[in-house]
Amino acid sequence: MMGGKTPFAWAARAFRVPGEERRSLVQIAKATAAAVIAWIVATAVLRLPQPFLAPYAAVFLVQATVYRSLRGWAQQVGAVSVGVLLAAGAGQLIPSVTVALGLVIFVGLLIGSWRGFGDSGVWVGITGMLLISYGNATEPVLLADRLLETALGAAIGAVLNAVILPPLHGERLRAATSRLASAIADVLDRTAELVRGGEPTDGLDDRMEDVRSLVAEAEDAIGWTREGRYLNLRGRRESREEPLANLVSLWHPLAQLIDAVSEAARSEQPFRHPGEHARGVVGDLLEALAEAVRSGDPDKLDRCRELLGEIDHLLVTPTDEVTTSIGLGAMALPARRLVQRLRAD
């Protein structure tokens, strides 16, 4: 959670900046409060004996999203119920505690592997194991207590997570947008250098791999944001994911553009590589695209459209320099797609 930061630096950033550290701190505080409240209710109000499962369940139900908390509550209560029934059956039918323990663990983990239980599936075997080992499996009242305290703790954790500062992931979305825009713009600038100079620039392949990685991170951020907004009382205030999704859509035409430029630069056949003037126009277009991506300003695309028009003119009007260059056409198509997808936002 803290990565390479010291605990003091991490805590200072959590209080100073409304980012991931602060969200983690809020979730930790909520999990702690849920556990304490569950313990107080189970001991002082319901007077349940040894209600250790109540705070345990409460902590685990303060999830990263409200949806996961509510889904986890249903899964956990279902898993614990099956574990209680499994322990009760084994306690009544198998005299040996050792044999009953082994059977309950095996069958419980087997049943818990059903995907409907999700991450809570392990609770089937664990609940059965605890009840058998504590000698509660033959006492119906204690079995009911275990089920009640689990449902109580899980409910308190889920409700606190949904009502008190329900988690959102807007800062993750904004950070991913900034990083991906910067990486794409940098690749476009370096590609412009390659087009003009005709010589490969250092590190372009590595930077494309960086963009690929950032696209995967962006898709993950979009997924978290959408899930975080679902059933969330603060969901309407969440950041929009459309700008980031728009940047993600640039990946394929960008990769096609890099392939076309690299192939033209490596080719020994003159008709595949545009002449100096055409390369200058393509370079200007890529730099204009980089500026539009970096700034997020749709007005910057006016210059891109002008340059696309000039490229179209070069393609249909033979000159001494350009004779319907295959290389220029190969570069123009993905460049046009980049402009179109940026306009889609």
Short description:
The protein is an all-alpha fold.
Detailed description of the structure:
The protein has 345 residues and is mostly helical. It folds into 2 domains: 24-163, no CATH class; 170-343, Four Helix Bundle (Hemerythrin (Met), subunit A), CATH 1.20.120. It has helices at residues 7-16, 20-45, 53-60, 66-93, 97-112, 122-133, 140-163, 170-197, 204-229, 242-248, 251-266, 276-295, 301-316, 326-343. Helix 9 (204-229) packs antiparallel against helix 10 (242-248). This is Integral membrane bound transporter domain-containing protein.
Tally of strands: 0
The major pleated sheet works out as: none
N- to C-terminal distance = 34 Å
Order of helices and strands: HHHHHHHHHHHHHH
Mean pLDDT: 82
Q: Can you count the helices?
A: 14
- CATH class placement of the largest domain: Mainly Alpha
Domain Integral membrane bound transporter: 38-159
GO cellular component, one term: membrane
InterPro entries: Memb_transporter_dom
Keywords: Membrane, Transmembrane, Transmembrane helix
Fold topology:
Layout: H1 7-16, H2 20-45, H3 53-60, H4 66-93, H5 97-112, H6 122-133, H7 140-163, H8 170-197, H9 204-229, H10 242-248, H11 251-266, H12 276-295, H13 301-316, H14 326-343
GO cellular component, one term: membrane
Transmembrane segments: 25-46, 82-111, 117-135, 147-168
Protein name: Integral membrane bound transporter domain-containing protein
Keywords, separated by commas or semicolons:
Four Helix Bundle (Hemerythrin (Met), subunit A), 345 residues, mainly alpha
